[in-house]
Amino acid sequence: MSPAELQSKTAHPVLAIENLVTEIRSVRGLIRPVDGVSMSFPAGKIVGVVGESGSGKSMTAFSIMQLFPTSAARVAGGRVLLGETDLIGRSPEQMRAIRGSRIGMIFQDPTSFLNPVLTIGRQIEQQLEAHRWTGGPPAGDRGQSYANRVSELLTSVGLPRDVSTRYPHQLSGGQCQRVGIASALACDPDLIIADEPTTALDVTIQAQILRLMMRLQRERAVALMLITHDLGVVAEVCDYVYVMYAGRIVEEGDVRSLFAAPQHPYTRALMSGVLSLTGTGNIGFAVPGSVPDLAAPPSGCRFHPRCPHAMPRCSQEAPPLFDRPSGRSACWLHDEATP
Ligand SMILES: Nc1ncnc2c1ncn2[C@@H]1O[C@H](COP(=O)(O)OP(=O)(O)OP(=O)(O)O)[C@@H](O)[C@H]1O
Ligand code: SF4
Ligand SMILES: [Mg+2]
Least CB-packed of 38, 152, 250, 330 within 10 Å? Predict the structure, then answer.
């Protein structure tokens, strides 16, 4: 892709979610794992989404895809804009066509999406067929064109071409994840959603896979949503980051500025956890207490039971996102009117 083409592709968000609300019916009542979340994914940029376990990262991704792990979940409000098109309310057939062609997905467990009884090549070909991939040189013989595309994809993710004749069980975890990346890229999507794509892999392989994803994402100017538990990874690879807490965004911003001066007490607590670690391997979260029960979330600012700066107002009113030099932060400390 030429620098001019790259420039024009990176000018607009390829996908934006606006005030998204997702509900799950449970025996304990209705819960909202995604509660008024807005995010933007520009082409050519890597956008990180971080937050403790249960904060709603995966549910946000599932909401974009409208593909939930439970039939009790549904999008209850907001918009998912792919270009000018709102994906909310699309039929299952339309969403199937969009997933895999306009939006690619890389999963945490690289073996979960592979069919054990089909060769790797056949699985990627099926995906090209399903989405009527018509890229590449014009060819009378589509079958040959698909085979060439499979070879090209496998080579681009650093796998030998003959992997196409192998079965999933003949590959290592890292190789399977490379196939996952090839598969996500197969139809030249505009956005790739990667939900903890390296967590299941050996530490030595994690860095290789991340580097590969970064290279391919930049070369193709595709937008990447990277869900991760690892703030070190965010600092290293992301352009922009959203910090989620109990179904809401508490802070967002340009990675460099946000890491230089985190604004929200929750983000600051996460960062101080990073500073106390050795800097190797996966970084855990070090905020005392735990993410609240979403069936009965705390009133006002959901972080108030754990926040060292909580004021009376914090338990009464939910703070909006205030503009900050590094981005936006949802904390009453930024409101000059707060007593
Ligand atoms: N299959 C499910 N059935 C019912 N509720 C669910 C289900 N999956 C998630 N939830 C609810 O949605 C909330 C958000 O879950 P989600 O999987 O999005 O968290 P996450 O931030 O991705 O966490 P992790 O870091 O552990 O992957 C959970 O706290 C839980 O209340
Ligand atoms: S709004 Fe209040 S409780 Fe919430 S993070 Fe800010 S100071 Fe803490
Ligand atoms: Mg998750």
Answer: 152
